[in-house]
Amino acid sequence: MPPAHNGGDRPIAAAAPRGRRGDGRDPVDYRLARARAVPEATVARLATYLRVLSNLDDGSITTVSSEELATAAGVNSAKLRKDLSFLGSYGIRGVGYDVSTLTEEIARTLGLTVHRSVALIGVGNLGQALAGYAGFATRGFRIAALIDVDPARIGTMIRGLEVHSMADIDRVVVEQEVAIAVLAIPAAAAQEVCDRVVSAGVTSILNFAPVVLNVPAHVDLRKVDLAAELQILSFHETRKAAAVLTRAVDQ
Amino acid sequence: MPPAHNGGDRPIAAAAPRGRRGDGRDPVDYRLARARAVPEATVARLATYLRVLSNLDDGSITTVSSEELATAAGVNSAKLRKDLSFLGSYGIRGVGYDVSTLTEEIARTLGLTVHRSVALIGVGNLGQALAGYAGFATRGFRIAALIDVDPARIGTMIRGLEVHSMADIDRVVVEQEVAIAVLAIPAAAAQEVCDRVVSAGVTSILNFAPVVLNVPAHVDLRKVDLAAELQILSFHETRKAAAVLTRAVDQ
DNA sequence: GCTTGTGAACGAGTTCACAGCG
DNA sequence: CGCTGTGAACTCGTTCACAAGC
């Protein structure tokens, strides 16, 4: 991996298990420390498990087996059990998992028990759609600020939030305690805006611009490349079409 | 993996290398068959390489080394070379890769040399943003049809396209030769719509609804879960905060 | 020389299958 | 007896390091 770049598949080193300390104070949340290092692949699935659990929670079901939860999440049960085992031992043998306990533990692991404010940079088509996306609020995130560079947009209100100038980013990050920024801006502007956002103190970025961003090592970066998703599907379409031709020729 | 479900991490079995055939005809594109099975992880990166190459192509550069291309794509050069080696041997030792040849080979591998029409299902906030996303067109895809279930939207024009009813899906898929559908609809409706789209003949789906979809084995499914992306970043935020606390306590 | 292409070593992630326990 | 939790086997993906070849 090149220096100063975190790709989507960055190596992890999760909440380090602490050794014994001599003093009696306990300023660190031990429930975090107790968890073993959680593999990156597991973290990604925890979000799905949490969503499935919250659907279950509405009903009268108080307990789920790994088999039930795995089926609902679209994975196999061994994988689900291994995933959950990284959080600790919250299942009951012969019974299953308590829905509310498990929900709580996953939410804690994902850091959703604390306040998470998000700054949305870029309020074009995609940005406005993201600003109105209800799924963020229901799953633990508050869009705390909208920012754009277009003078025509600055000062306008979108979904109850005023659009600020990029010059306000430092103040916004501090005042709203923003740790996560979502970039919904053109590719050409993305690296510059990214640098600015990082210097304002943001330490996690979700990038929708189709460009490779370089960030310092302490900043986590994830990307959503919409066209790439279609291209991957296109690859498999080609493969399926070739398989049909191959079969036709073989017989 | 549960039956009849393809997750995002589906096992691959790419364009099967063909054995010798006795007849002289050659109805199958051998350039597809020539490529070895391409790992899923490689396919995902090919889209990035293609994008980076197309930026390079504008200039006067006709050749790139694996080191240059890898840096621009945010991967290391060994990985890039191994990725490209799955397509065949298109590099020149001591020199590098010819930009236009490589662009062509990657595009062919991803199936972008043929016409790819996409149906967009759901023209709410996100759907409209996707309908207007220029990146689809510039990277090989044409949004050929818009569909929604809301009677208020059906018949309206969005970006030059009329919004059709779900009842038109069968006709649209055939007439426009749609193989890929993008679902930008509420979670509650997603499985039903998905089933309908599959029965109309769509064989690849990109799902934006935060729900696990079940599809037949011949259908490829990818998902974009926006809230999950933020939750993954939130996990790492928690880890970083814990690391700071841990260090503070240790010293 | 310099850069590709790749076997081999390594590491991450998944699945198996069963011990451990309620 | 049923279901969790997990070592062990296995598969997939990455990195190393160097032979091959322009």
Note the main attributes of this structure:
homodimer; 251 residues; alpha/beta; Arc Repressor Mutant, subunit A; Rossmann fold; 2 domains; seven-stranded mixed β-sheet; three-stranded antiparallel β-sheet; 10 helices; 43% helix; disordered N terminus; DNA-binding
**Rg on CA atoms of chain A, Å:** 22 Å
Oligomer: homodimer
Highest CATH level, the class of the largest domain in chain A: Alpha Beta
Structural class call of chain A reads alpha/beta
Total count of helical runs of at least 4 residues of chain A: 10
Mean pLDDT of chain A: 88
The domain tally of chain A reads 2
Amount of beta strand of chain A: 15-25%
- Low-confidence segments of chain A: 1-30
Q: Level of helix content of chain A? A: 40-55%
- Spell the H/E element sequence of chain A: HHEHHEEHEHHEEEHEHEEH
Hey, which two chains have the biggest interface? A-B, 89 and 91 residues
**What is the CATH topology descriptor of the largest domain in chain A?**
Rossmann fold
Question: Which sheet architecture does the biggest sheet of chain A show?
Answer: 7 strands, mixed
Q: Order the strands across the largest sheet of chain A as they lie in space.
A: 6-7-5-4-8-9-10
Summarize the structure.
The structure is a homodimer of 251-residue chains. Chain A is an alpha/beta fold.
What does this structure look like?
Two copies of one chain form a homodimer. Chain A has 251 residues and is an alpha/beta fold. Chain A folds into two domains: 30-109, Arc Repressor Mutant, subunit A (Orthogonal Bundle); 117-228, Rossmann fold (3-Layer(aba) Sandwich). In chain A, 43% of the residues lie in helices and 16% in strands. Chain A is built from ten helices and ten strands. Chain A has helices at residues 30-34, 40-57, 66-73, 77-85, 99-109, 125-131, 134-138, 169-175, 187-199, 226-250; strands at residues 63-64, 91-92, 96-98, 117-121, 142-148, 157-158, 161-165, 178-183, 204-207, 220-223. Chain A has a seven-stranded mixed beta sheet, sandwiched between helices. A three-stranded antiparallel beta sheet of chain A has the order 1-3-2. In chain A, helix 2 (40-57) packs across helix 3 and helix 2 packs antiparallel against helix 5 (99-109). Chain A is globular. The model of chain A is unreliable at 1-30 (pLDDT under 50). Chains A and B meet through helix 2, helix 3, helix 6, helix 7 and strand 8 of A and helix 2, helix 3, helix 6, helix 7 and strand 8 of B. The structure holds a DNA duplex (22 and 22 nucleotides).
